[in-house]
Amino acid sequence: MSKLHVSTTINGEPVEFLCDPSASMLDALRGPLGLTGTKEGCGTGDCGACSITVDGRLVCACLMLAVEAEGHEIGTIEGMAQGDELHPLQRKFLEMAALQCGICTPGVLMASRALLEKNPDPTEEEVRFGLAGNLCRCTGYDKIVRAVLETAAEMREAAR
Amino acid sequence: MNDMTNKWIGARTIRPDGADKVTGRAQYSADTTMPGMIWGKLLRSPHAHARIRSIDTSKAEALPGVKAVVTQKDIVEFALDKSVMLGIQDMRWMCRNVMAREKALFHGHPIAAVAAISEEVAAHACSLIEVDYEVLPHVIEIEDAIKPDAPILHEWNQFEGKPSNIAGTMVLKAGDIEKGFAEADIVVERTFTTRPVHQGYIEPHACTVSYAADGRVTIWSSSQGQFMVRAMTSLLTGIPQSNIRAIPAEIGGGFGAKTIIYLEPVAVMLSKKSGRPVKMVMTREEVQRATGPAPGSLSTVKIGAKKDGTIVAAQGTFYLQAGGLPGSPLRGPVGCSFAAYAIPNVLSVGYDVVSNRSKVAAYRAPGAPHGAFAAECVIDEIAQALGLDPLDMRLKNSAKAGDKAIYGPTFGAVTFKETIEAIKHHPHYRAPLDKAPRPGVKRGRGVASGFWYNAGGESSVQVNITEDGNVVVTTGHPDVGGSRASIANVVAELIGVDHARVNVMIGDTQTIGFSNLTGGSRVTFASAMVATAATEKVIGQLKERAAKIWGIEAEAVKWEDGMALPAGDNAGKFPPLSLKELAAKANEMGGPIGNQTQLNTTGADPGYATHCVDVEVDVDLGIVRVLRYTAAQDVGRALHPGYVEGQIQGGVVQGIGWALSEEYLYDAKGRVDNASFLDYRMPVCSDVPMIEPIMIEIPNPKHPQGVRGVGEAPIVPPLAAIANAVHDALGKRFYALPMSPPRVSARMDEAN
Amino acid sequence: MTDIRYVAPSTLEEAVGAFAAASGAARILAGGTDLLVQMRNGVVKPGTIIDIKKIAEMTAIEELPDGRIRIGAAVPGVVLAEHPRFGKAWPGVLEAINLIGSKQVQGRASPGGNLCNGSPAGDSVPAMIAAGAVVTVQGPGGRREMPVEAVPAGPGRTNLAPGEIVVAFTLPARPKGSGDAYLRMIPRTEMDIAVVGCGVSLTMAGGVVTAARVGLGAVAPTVLLVEDAAKALIGSRLDDAALEAAAAACRAACKPINDKRGTIAYRIKVAGVLLKRTAAIAAARAGGN
Questions:
Q1: Contacts with C, B 671-690, CB within 8 Å
Q2: pLDDT band at C24 (very low <50, low <70, confident <90, very high)
Q3: CB distance C33–A45 less than 8 Å?
Q4: Is C188–B687 a contact, with Cβ atoms under 8 angstroms apart?
Q5: CA angle (B518, B519, B525) in 5-degree steps
Q6: Closest residue of B to C101, CA-based?
Q7: Do C102 and C166 have their domain in common?
Q8: One domain for residues A10 and A75
Q9: What is each CA distance from C168 to B4, B96, C34, C109, C199, in whole angstroms?
């Protein structure tokens, strides 16, 4: 079985890698690319721990073939902070204890960022449905939802 | 050192491991790789119950790329007739759970394992292993397993003189149960069932293991206790503990189920045989099929009360599923169901029932929610029959200091009443509820309480002052939800420095002293206790150093706000010495400053919780949704309120899933039919409302900061609270969980 | 080890050629939200994966001069949601497509994939049936059109001929006074497979239903077009008797199974409940148009 060569952009940087034709994007990220911040909770698109963006759109890395990254822009949790400056969502999650074990956190943060990019002023219900694809077993979601709402308010204030 | 003026204790600080966890840098179980690493895979039983006649691995071994094959012959066998315990785990069962021996006892039971150059090759090799099975009749449900003609899982197990699937019993008694019921004005007896539920941690079990040529083993894996990993791996492989270094990876949720191991001994033997580091990662399907869950249950509770609501007798009979091997958490329902109440006559009996399911594992207050579901629903029914407010009935019967607990000890302070009163006076309980807001929609409110023992036990800690005058604390406990942050707060408070100058690490088994599991709501209690003891010794050293520098007695030095000050007659005679200054002079004044303290901690008083919930039912579809939830609990002292609230909120939502949507489903062949997050329905974000925690802080007098364990109690009341709320909405009592739409719908149709 | 080939042709002719040449050993990749799960579970082991997303027609949304709308089979739900006019014309179809899985899944999942996966519980299919969508199919024998309800053949099976690929859905022009809706019953609020799904499309004049179509999912081996339910609605003012007659027709059409997601009795009951609720939403929308 010969490997396929893929040229793509990950977190703004050009990247080339080799993959099996049947490898998922999650396999490629966690394997040859060493980007283990994207987590595998189920491998079937049911938990959202592997949430990434492709050309700005939120997807599950486990439901995408690695070869499909060719020519697209991939975003992962490793690209969320700018240098040592955390994204407002990352900062707010820490301030508000919106994570416990932290395994779902990268996916939740990616989904939350995608949500706020589309809707900077979401209601609680919109946040809850926007994050319905991200299972969290520790927090009961309360502090996650509050942190997203609070970040949205802060970002709106900063943008004024 | 505990009052509300504390600067760090009780502060919502940023956790020391936080930045790593929000940037994807934290290393969890499956994130480790090693040079030359190969992949291990398990062959699992396709049958629910089968005798293993033979296993032929020759074709698998011959496959190119295969480096090692392991079967039960490679795992240490513990004979059936002699119990060898590690904590509450019996090695007879653990060795058979990790790898089937005489029989495959559930669909998914490990039969053999392969290590190969890739996961694909390893999986292919597993398919080449030939196993000769004698397929046996299987039994899944408790009701079937205890029938006289049930298929017997373990022929050697006898109950009442006959081979049986009842593998153990537990009995607690007080007073005279018959006399008690005879004195009662009202007696209500009901039978309840709950389905097995999975702990549902998002991180599948995984490990990377390196067995080096000198026989030294390194294990990277996540668990609720690296010392448990080391000890259990040692027992199951025969390798001495001194040669096993278990490095705790960050843990992606455990909730009790990562207090035992599945993969590590197998990976060790694969690594030993192949001479290569071996990584094993379970799929979600394997996790759902073959790890955890919490048991299902069949419970009968009978309670007798006087007209004024005084409970005079309570009897509970609790059957819990153990899975394929003995060991369900009987002490949960048997000991906790009636513990918070002062009841003169009690008989509480538990039965451990084996059946062809995966072996159960601990899940948050193991067994207590099962019992509370039954007991708290019956109490609600009696209160209704007597025309009493259900909270008043609980207040009337609350245990008090000096009462003898059903499970043995005499209670110190009992703070149960405070939790009931917190709900009783909360706006939620007093708010009017529109019980029929729209056609086809009904609403109801319910309350219930819960009890959990809590635990102390062994903990070790090191507190070291760095050369530049900061603090590093190393504990022996995996951090499942903010324990590093709590310890940083305590140590920062005691030393009097900014919490950001205290870094809290988790040591591996060869670098820190023995520390028992993160579980049973013990870690914040125990590790804060040892961290306090160690820090106080470090402060003593710092005072000695200052005294030496000043040429005065150590007793004449006091420690305040991170500085040594001359006290008493010497007050003001010398300028204060800061932590940084003392650290800089450490070596010339006697050497490094630090302390390791190891204790078997005691004084963990029980946890009490009372909850109130509003539900809404879509009557035509049978869908129950939670509208509002308030949970009151005595938390002793919240070292970090954010993570204490998080424990309460998370436990409640797990309880909501248990009550409404989570269950194991089996097909006719005894195979789990919903081994995925798609059909094992844990609550998603849009299923639940905000969960309001009421933290009642009554300091535990036996703990330096007043800590009381928090994690378990919140999952105990929700099952009954929600069932009581659904009754309030529909006028029908539900005795079986989950209250899923088809069940609720069918129940509504019964009347019509 | 199976050798898997991945191809991403830029024309439909190449895709059909590769699909036909693989004679059954190939799978079409659109959003992949079903295919990758099936590959991972070992349910399918394709020899060739044909990624059709580089074919322009497959990912286009086209408003035809006569008012019809054509949706490429591989258009993901999120793109359809971003279209300025599609959701106004067909809110029920859009809701149905965007009930497929999470936001993450909606970033990839397409109506073509949902239809060709052949699940009786696919959310978009009852809504498409109610809408009267026509499917354009291309194969070695050329291009043809078929009503969407003619595509499913049974769980996991379709009536497509070997080598045929679904290219597009064409939804009819909307007369004034039209509205559609889709509701499904799931135990949670999100992330479940439909236990029952119901799509209703209505056209009304002066409060009277002049045209109706009803699609019903997860209650039979294929998604159903329930013509008797439509007949019960047409000519009525959606009074209780007409709604009950349509609900009864839906219940009568059910041939469900007991499975991990629902019981026979429950599914039959829910089919009737959902018909009434869905029709009410469709009628409200029709009134607003």
A1: 673-674, 678-679, 681, 683-684, 686-687
A2: confident
A3: yes
A4: yes
A5: 75
A6: B678
A7: yes
A8: yes
A9: 67, 55, 19, 14, 20
**Contact (CB<8Å) B15/A94:** yes
Q: Cα dihedral angle (A83, A88, A89, A92), rounded to 10 degrees? A: 110
Is B23 in contact with A77 (Cβ distance < 8 A)?
Answer: yes
* pLDDT tier at C1, thresholds 50, 70, 90: very low
Instruction: Say whether C104 and A133 touch across the interface (CB within 8 A).
Output: yes
Which of B25, B284, B651 is opposite residue A37, by nearest beta carbon? Answer: B25
Average pLDDT along chain B, 752 residues, taken 10 residues at a time: 80 97 98 97 98 98 98 97 95 98 98 97 98 98 97 96 97 98 98 98 98 98 98 98 98 98 98 98 98 97 98 98 98 98 98 98 98 98 98 98 96 96 98 98 98 96 98 97 97 97 98 94 96 98 97 95 94 96 95 97 96 98 98 97 98 98 97 97 98 97 96 98 98 97 94 60
Q: Which residue has the tokens 């069940």?
A: B743
Using a CB–CB cutoff of 8 Å, tell me whether B124 touches chain C: yes
Which of A46, A79, A112 terminates a domain? The answer is: A79
Q: Which helix (H) or strand (E) holds C20?
A: helix C12-21
Alpha-carbon span C230 to C130, nearest angstrom: 10
Residue pLDDT, tens place only, C130-157: 999 999 999 999 999 999 999 999 999 9
A95 shares a domain with A37: no
Contact list, A48 vs chain C (CB under 8 Å):
102, 104
Residues B129, B244 share a domain:
yes
pLDDT at residue B412, rounded to an integer: 92
User: In this predicted structure, what is the pLDDT of residue A1?
Assistant: 59
Chain A partners within 8 Å of B22 (Cβ): 81, 86, 90, 93-94, 99, 102, 105-106, 109
Which neighbouring-strand residues pair with B444? B615
Q: Which residues from chain C sit within 8 angstroms of residue B120, using beta carbons?
A: 1
Q: What is the Cα–Cα distance from B253 to B245, expressed in whole angstroms?
A: 22
Residues C144 and C228 in one domain: no
Closest residue of C to A57, CA-based?
C107
Cis preceding linkage at B293, omega within 30: yes
User: pTM of the prediction?
Assistant: 0.98
- How does DSSP classify residue B747? H
H helices present in B192-337, as ranges: 226-237, 264-274, 284-290, 331-336
At B355 the three-state DSSP class reads: coil
Inform me whether the C-beta atom of residue A57 falls under 8 Å from chain C C-beta atoms.
yes
User: Which residue, among B356, B359, B360, has the nearest Cα to B136 in the 3D structure?
Assistant: B356
Q: Which amino acid is at B391?
A: L
Is the Cβ pair B678, C188 closer than 8 Å?
no
Same-domain status, A131 and A152 = yes
Omega prior to A14 cis, within 30 of 0? no
Strand partners, B247: B220
Nearest chain C alpha carbon to B65: C1
- The reported pLDDT for the residue numbered B1 is 47
Helices (H), B594-740: 641-660, 718-730
Q: Give domain status of residue B377, yes or no.
A: no
Q: How far apart are CA B186 and CA B189, in angstroms?
A: 10
B85, B91 Cβ separation under 8 angstroms:
yes
**What tens digit of pLDDT does each residue of B30-46 get?**
999 999 999 999 999 99
CA distance B712 to B519: 9
CATH of the domain at B734: 3.30.365.10
Q: Are B363 and B331 in contact (CB under 8 A)?
A: no
Model confidence pLDDT, tens digit, residues C256-280: 999 999 999 999 999 999 999 999 9
What span, in angstroms and rounded, lies between the C-alpha atoms of B131 and B325? 21
| Domain boundaries, position B228 | 32-136+200-290
* Contact between chains at B622 and C266 (C-beta distance less than 8 A): yes
